[in-house]
Amino acid sequence: MAQSSTEAESAYDQLLSKYKRIANVENAGGILSWDQQVMMPDEGTPARSQQMSALSALRHELLTDDEFGELLEAAEEDDPTEEQAAVLRELRRDYERAARVPNDLVEKISAASSEAIPAWKQAKAEDDFEKFAPHLEKHVELKRKYAEHIDPDRDAYEVLFEDYEPCLPLDQAEDILADVREVLVSMIEDIRESDTELAVDSFEGEFDESEQEELVRDALSTLGYPWDRGRLDTAPHPFSSGTQFDARVTTRYDESDPLGSLFSTIHEFGHALYTLGLPDEHYATPLGEDRNLSVHESQSRLWENHVGRSRAFWQHFLPTFTEHFPEVDASVEEAYEAANQVYDDNLIRVEADELTYHLHIVIRFELERELVSGDLEVEDVPEAWNDKYEEYLGIRPETDSEGCLQDIHWAYGNFGYFPTYSLGSIMAAQLFAAAEEDIDGLDEKIASGEFGDLREWLRENVHQHGRQYETNDLVKRATGEDFAADDFLDYVESKYSEIYDL
Amino acid sequence: MAQSSTEAESAYDQLLSKYKRIANVENAGGILSWDQQVMMPDEGTPARSQQMSALSALRHELLTDDEFGELLEAAEEDDPTEEQAAVLRELRRDYERAARVPNDLVEKISAASSEAIPAWKQAKAEDDFEKFAPHLEKHVELKRKYAEHIDPDRDAYEVLFEDYEPCLPLDQAEDILADVREVLVSMIEDIRESDTELAVDSFEGEFDESEQEELVRDALSTLGYPWDRGRLDTAPHPFSSGTQFDARVTTRYDESDPLGSLFSTIHEFGHALYTLGLPDEHYATPLGEDRNLSVHESQSRLWENHVGRSRAFWQHFLPTFTEHFPEVDASVEEAYEAANQVYDDNLIRVEADELTYHLHIVIRFELERELVSGDLEVEDVPEAWNDKYEEYLGIRPETDSEGCLQDIHWAYGNFGYFPTYSLGSIMAAQLFAAAEEDIDGLDEKIASGEFGDLREWLRENVHQHGRQYETNDLVKRATGEDFAADDFLDYVESKYSEIYDL
Question: Residue B234 forms beta bridges with which residues?
Answer without folding.
Answer: B251
